[in-house]
Amino acid sequence: MSHIDALIYDLVTGEVLKKVGDTPLMLSKEAGISGGWIEAGDGDTDENSYVDVTTSPHSKHRKIDYTLETHPVPCTATIEGVEYPITEPMNFTFVPGPVAVDYEIMIAAGIQYLEKEFIVHENAAT
Asked: Which is nearest to 3 in space by CA: 33, 51, 40?
């Protein structure tokens, strides 16, 4: 039997759960009832790919990359552990405090986009 590199994905959401290599029969068993598999190409991973489950047959795509300045809309920004729904483009700016601070910002916007972390440095007030 031939060995295939494949992405195992959720049939409802299209989220890629993992990348594996096996025979077609074993891939189907691993995907189970609620999952599917699609052949992986060069560079496809569970972190940078998703499957469009609204097409027939299902189609594989790369997640969209972005910068903090070009973040997707809508998205959720998690800043220092607090979630903020973002519904329009915005600039992330912070009020300077008595000491310099690095803010960790996580952006999540659905399976079509990479989930990314940004560090924003804010200098101390002068």
From this structure: 40
Q: Cβ(12)–Cβ(25) under 8 Å?
A: no
Other beta carbons less than 10 A from residue 56's beta carbon: 6
Give me the pLDDT at residue 97, please: 86
At residue 29, what are phi and psi to the nearest 5 degrees?
-65, -40
Alpha helices in the chain (DSSP H): 24-31
Tokens of 47: 């972190």
Q: In the chain, what are the domain boundaries? A: 4-62, 75-122
| CA atoms of 40 and 46, how far apart (whole Å) | 10
Token code pair at residue 13 = 């959401």
pTM value is 0.80
Distance of CA 48 to the CA centre of its chain: 7
Mind listing the pLDDT tens digit for each residue in 27-38?
899 888 889 999
Q: How far is CA 13 from CA 10, 34, 42, 111, 113, in A?
A: 6, 10, 23, 8, 14
The set of residues, in sequence order, having a beta carbon less than 8 Å from that of 124 and lying 6+ positions away, is 96, 97, 98, 99, 100
Rounded-to-integer distance, Cα 108 and Cα 55, Å: 24
